[in-house]
Design a protein that fits this description.
single chain
Length: 151
């Protein structure tokens, strides 16, 4: 049985794009089998996408200390339609900011907790330009979430 990992991302900058690509490379590592990786822009992801997923990775820039409006829109659109049926989904998070990212992390974790999702890995947070270590952490995040879905 194939499992599905949904990556919901908002990648308006080169830095968030690099982080997304690293997460995607980790999630699609050839050693991970039986996991279909689906990627959706935050403004395009739907409740049906969440309900079809067995796990999620969420990616956002931190804008003025909060998650992007696009990721917030995603949560606003899916919250009640998935609330009862997506309990227990494992999720991971990556956040990029030029200043503080703590508010964005706290906001996403608060909503995910409200949905009954369980954090499967520590958030990857990057301030400034992602370096090699940050991109490796993003790769690890994607691989961890995908490998956790393998049977």
């Amino acid at each position: 049985m194939t499992r599905t990992l949904l990556i919901v991302h908002h990648t308006p900058s080169p830095a968030t794009s690099e982080m997304f690509e690293a997460v995607l490379r980790g999630a699609t590592d050839p050693e991970i089998t039986g996991v279909d990786v689906v990627r959706r822009a935050a403004l395009a992801a739907t409740a049906s996408d969440v309900l079809a997923a067995d796990g999620l990775v969420l990616g956002t820039p931190a804008n003025i200390g909060y998650m992007s409006g696009a990721l917030k829109h995603f949560f606003d659109q899916v919250y009640y339609p998935v609330l009862d049926d997506a309990q227990g989904r494992p999720y991971g998070l990556y956040v990029h900011g030029n200043l503080g990212v703590e508010g964005a992390v706290k906001a996403v974790e608060s909503i995910a907790d409200g949905l009954g999702w369980r954090r499967a890995a520590a958030p990857v947070t990057v301030a400034g330009q992602p370096d090699k270590a940050a991109l490796e952490a993003c790769w690890e995040l994607g691989a961890t979430l995908a490998a956790g879905l393998m049977e």
